[in-house]
Specification:
The radius of gyration is 19 Å and the shape is globular. With 274 residues, it is of the alpha+beta class. Helix content is 41%, strand content 19%. The protein has 2 domains: 142 residues, Bordetella uptake gene, domain 1 (D-Maltodextrin-Binding Protein, domain 2); 100 residues, Periplasmic binding protein-like II (D-Maltodextrin-Binding Protein, domain 2, 3-Layer(aba) Sandwich), CATH 3.40.190. It contains 10 helices and 8 strands.
């Protein structure tokens, strides 16, 4: 969506090169080793913040090796179960899990994702025991719930939203600051009785450190314009995202909050990747 609009506005061709491994580490490495001329950019999720909390050693410093351009979109996670489970609220999930004597398990898109951290925070807050079953992506993690391979799923909203809307899965709660527009009956975790339980997945654009400020400013402004139309916002929302299209300063501020917050959660839950 962004490439399409930047192609037209900048009069150049944007080539997308997917590096779908290692929580964004591979993509980050590829970008920081590129010339800081604005021609090679990184579209990263906040797996970047999670990686900084989980890995003892990273091949990059998220603050020193990147220049923030814009937080483009964000999306809540959602806790899901099968309708035939009879579970309709997070409270009922906690009661059922406690009664199951440690036999419950939950799926996520992988170890160290914000969805995984959502599941671990729920366990930490309630004292329930659920084994974590990681999958290669949110789609397979949602399908694992649908197929009954796991009892619970903690996934990014886009993968689960159509299954919840069609009634094939039950959404217990979203982890954003407000209810999702197309799922008005699904409460937030705060509304479900968990104050401060907010866990959103964002996607943001970064450039290598040393990229000239005028190039960063140009790219940030073009990102804002690319997402400014109602059509763009409808496309994003239809894919399970809310448009942010913020400034470099806003993204820098979010990273300064996000990384320490994730580190604190990792310490509380004891989550380990290495």
């Amino acid at each position: 969506m962004l490439a399409e609009r930047l192609d037209a506005r900048l009069g150049t061709q944007i080539v997308i090169e997917n590096q779908p491994t290692g929580g964004g580490v591979a993509a980050a490495k590829a970008v920081i080793s590129s010339p800081p001329d604005g021609h090679t950019l990184a579209l990263l999720s906040n797996a970047t913040a999670v990686s900084a909390a989980l890995f003892k050693k990273l091949p990059y410093d998220p603050f020193k090796d990147f220049v923030p351009i814009s937080e483009l979109v964000d999306s809540p996670n959602i806790v899901i179960v099968r309708p035939d489970s009879g579970i309709k609220t997070v409270t009922e999930l906690v009661e059922r899990a406690k009664a199951a004597n440690g036999t419950f398990n939950y799926s996520s898109p992988g170890i160290g994702t914000k969805s995984n951290l959502t599941g671990e925070e729920l366990k930490q807050r309630t004292g329930i025991v659920m084994a974590h079953i990681p999958y290669r992506g949110a789609g397979p993690a949602a399908l694992a719930v649908l197929e009954g391979t796991v009892q619970v799923g903690s996934v990014a909203l886009p993968a689960a939203e159509p299954l919840v809307k069609s009634g094939k899965l039950t959404g217990l709660a979203v982890t954003g600051t407000k209810r999702w527009p197309s799922l008005p009956d699904v409460p937030t975790m705060e509304q479900a009785g968990f104050p401060g339980f907010i866990s959103e997945t964002f996607n943001a654009l970064f450039a290598p450190a040393g990229t000239p400020p005028e190039i960063v400013a140009l790219l940030a402004e073009e990102c804002r314009k690319a997402f400014a139309t109602e059509k763009a916002r409808d496309i994003a929302r239809g894919a399970g995202f809310e448009v942010v299209a913020g400034t470099p300063e806003q993204l820098a501020a979010r990273m300064k909050i996000e990384i320490p917050a994730v580190k604190a959660l990792v310490e509380r839950t004891g989550l380990k990747l290495e």
